[in-house]
Amino acid sequence: MQSKQLPLRGFVACVDRHAFVTSIHDRMPVIVAPANYERWLDTDSKSTPSPDLLQPYPAEEMEAWTVSDDVGNVRNSDPELLSLQEPGQGTLFS
Prior knowledge:
The protein is low in regular secondary structure and 94 residues long. It folds into 2 domains: 10-62, no CATH class; 64-94, no CATH class. It has 2 helices and 2 strands; from the N terminus they run E-H-E-H. The chain has helices spanning 19-22, 37-41; strands at residues 14-15, 28-29. The protein has a two-stranded antiparallel ribbon with strand order 1-2. The longest helix is centred in the middle third of the chain and has 5 residues, at 37-41. The protein is extended. It starts with 13 loop residues before the first strand and ends in a 53-residue tail after the last helix. The model has no long low-confidence stretch (mean pLDDT 80).
């Protein structure tokens, strides 16, 4: 008898954005700090994440930079996509 494989499932949890993210996007995904990885992945204690994990990531710990237009295409996966773009090279939103 073959075991039945369940489909992989996932979701993106979003929280209220703060000023750092507002100029970039209208939503802010939950970013789990490394210190909380075990709590986030703990499926034995409860079926939903603890509400204190569903908070905006601290703006002072975030960094943003302009990237290539190629970032918006799912067929691209080159690490160079995250390189800082010089002014005049185009941006994701121009």
